[in-house]
Design the sequence.
């Protein structure tokens, strides 16, 4: 049975930071072959839920397609 993975962004202060996170989520959606693209919802600190993906698989995909993820998402160990 698959689970879900939660990603948290750093506080988003402006449109350029939001655009960077949205671009990363688009790449991640493609890499994981998700049926629905991941989207950032409102708020200054976003919570993104990746359904039906194990955390290890999600973080491996992030490492592959979002080389600067450390500036966008909180690491899994900080949660």
Sequence:
């Amino acid at each position: 049975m698959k689970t879900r993975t939660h990603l948290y962004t750093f506080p988003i202060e402006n449109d350029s930071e939001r655009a960077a996170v949205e671009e990363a989520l688009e790449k991640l959606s493609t890499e994981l072959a998700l049926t629905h693209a991941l989207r950032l919802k409102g708020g200054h600190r976003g919570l993104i839920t990746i359904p039906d993906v194990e955390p290890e698989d999600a973080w491996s995909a992030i490492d592959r397609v979002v080389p600067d993820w450390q500036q966008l998402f909180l690491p899994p160990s900080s949660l």
Remarks:
- The radius of gyration is 12 Å.
- Strands lie at 4-8, 47-51.
- The CA atoms of residues 2 and 52 lie 5 Å apart.
